[in-house]
Amino acid sequence: MANLIDRTGVITLNRQIAKDIYKIVLQFDDFPQSIHGAQFAHVKLNDKAHVLRRPFCICDYNIADKTLTMCYAVVGKGTEILSKYPVGEKLKVMLPLGNGFVPDKNVKKIVLLGGGMGSAVLPAISRTNPELEYYTYLGFANKDKVALEEEMRALSKEITVATDDGSYGRKGFVTNVLAEDMERISPDLIFCCGPEVMYKALKKALAPFNVPIIVSLEARMGCGIGACLVCNCKVKRNGEEGYARACIDGPVFNLDEVVL
Ligand SMILES: Cc1cc2nc3c(=O)[nH]c(=O)nc-3n(C[C@H](O)[C@H](O)[C@H](O)COP(=O)(O)OP(=O)(O)OC[C@H]3O[C@@H](n4cnc5c(N)ncnc54)[C@H](O)[C@@H]3O)c2cc1C
Ligand code: FES
Question: Ligand 2 centre and the CA of 120: distance in Å?
Answer without folding.
Answer: 21
